[in-house]
Specification:
The chain has one domain. 66% of the residues lie in helices and 0% in strands. The longest helix is centred in the middle third of the chain and has 26 residues. It has 143 residues and is mainly alpha-helical. It is elongated.
């Protein structure tokens, strides 16, 4: 599903970003659910390897890390930072509507889908204004 927002705004818009940059950020956000799965898997793996001393995730011979648990922890931090960036940008956009914005930008939901599934408490114009603001703020954060 994709949103109904036009990928290119007028350059006079206060939330203008270049069309291809918008697509880059949109696809960045669509990876959010993958990152969450990776972090969850790594947390389980770190607990298992710490308690048993044996890792199910192989570490490459060319790796700079001799400790597989440390390598997994660093990978977990890498993805957790991306997750946090998206979530914090949603909160900065609108604290009240951040759960709806998060659903939209990480799943590609349009206003109509959010309205039907979650009964979003704002009108279409307010939602898309905040949607544009989210990507504008993410552009500043992710530059």
């Amino acid at each position: 599903m994709s949103t109904e927002i036009k990928p290119e705004l007028s350059t006079k818009s206060k939330y203008w970003i270049e069309k291809h940059r918008y697509y880059e950020l949109k696809h960045f956000c669509l990876q959010y659910n993958i990152w969450k799965q990776i972090v969850d898997t790594l947390e389980i793996e770190i607990k298992n390897s710490s308690s048993s001393g044996v890792s199910l995730v192989p570490v490459k011979k060319s790796s700079n890390y001799s400790n597989p648990t440390e390598a997994m922890a660093l990978k977990r931090v890498f993805y957790a930072n991306k997750i946090n960036m998206v979530e914090e940008t949603c909160k900065e956009t609108s604290l009240a509507l951040s759960p709806y914005i998060l659903l939209a930008v990480t799943n590609g939901y349009s206003y109509d889908v959010l309205r039907a599934r979650t009964n979003i408490p704002c009108c279409r114009d307010v939602y898309y204004e905040l949607y544009r603001r989210f990507f504008w703020l993410l552009d500043k954060e992710h530059a």
